UniProtKB/TrEMBL annotation:
Keywords: Heme, Iron, Metal-binding, Monooxygenase, Oxidoreductase
Species for this entry: Syncephalastrum racemosum
Listed Gene3D superfamilies: Cytochrome P450
GO MF: heme binding; iron ion binding; monooxygenase activity; oxidoreductase activity, acting on paired donors, with incorporation or reduction of molecular oxygen
PROSITE patterns per UniProt: CYTOCHROME_P450
Protein known as: Cytochrome P450
Residues holding heme: 182
């Protein structure tokens, strides 16, 4: 990175490709009139919206949390995640169905290459379609368009650990891959785990009730807001009801 001052302005020349790609992300969001959003907050927004539709999933999470708290008298830490196979599976399935961003970080071809019959010229910007990857029947043969946390029950390895295996062994691609994998993968996974265990230890998440029709109003899951380079659900309201009430 090189800087040059001209009057009151500073002109910066960035030559390191990863920095250029990251700044491209931020500038694209700013140009779209959107402030860069916290991906963890986006993940939680989709998770809550999805789980309102699935009270049976909430109940299974609560059963795992209740067993732990009854035994230990406290909330779990992420280091104790092995005792929460279903919760880990729900986390993965929510990310699979609703990745915070539809596309991965842009990469640049460093040389001319041929890939599956396609010629890619040196300097071409390559962007992975994460949304399509997570709905592909080859990777997810068991009804890929349906919300089914059980599909991950046989592989509850944390996403941070799975990210260091071969690409063929991965089950979630949200955080990218290779040397430029998102460094926040562990923080994101552990933070969402902590929030979910605390929510479901105390609450049920229920839809709001229309005051006129007395019918429940559920969050919309098949549409997203224009939020720059992230996908936010349409605005919604839910009720956090203390368990047992």
């Amino acid at each position: 990175m090189e800087g040059q001052r001209s009057g009151t302005e500073i002109q910066v020349k960035i030559s390191y490709p990863p920095c250029k790609s990251y700044l491209f992300h931020l500038l694209a969001e700013e140009k779209a009139g959107k402030k860069p959003l916290d991906r963890i907050a986006v993940t939680l927004s989709w998770t809550l919206a999805e789980l309102v539709h699935h009270p049976e999933v909430q109940q299974k999470i609560q059963e795992e949390v209740d067993v732990f708290i009854t035994k230990h008298g406290r909330h779990p830490t992420f280091a104790e995640r092995d005792q929460f196979p279903y919760l880990i599976s729900v986390q993965k399935e929510c990310l699979r169905c609703h990745p915070p961003s539809p596309f991965g970080a842009p990469h640049t071809a460093t040389e001319d290459l041929n890939f599956r019959g396609h010629f890619i010229k040196k300097g071409t910007v390559l962007v992975a379609n994460l949304h399509a990857m997570h709905l592909g029947p080859e990777a997810y043969p068991d009804e890929p368009t349906r919300f089914k946390p059980d599909r991950f029950m046989q592989n509850i390895v944390p996403m941070a650990a799975a990210a260091n295996t071969k690409i063929e062994s991965r089950d979630i691609y949200v955080f990218g891959w290779g040397r430029r994998i998102c460094p926040g993968i562990y923080l994101a996974e552990s933070e969402v785990f902590a929030i979910m265990t605390r929510i479901f230890a105390s609450c049920d998440i229920l839809p709001v009730i229309d005051q006129k029709t007395k019918k429940p109003i559920y969050p919309v899951l098949d549409k997203a807001r224009d939020s720059g380079l992230v996908m936010l659900p349409l605005e919604y309201n839910v009720r956090f009801v203390k368990r047992g009430q």
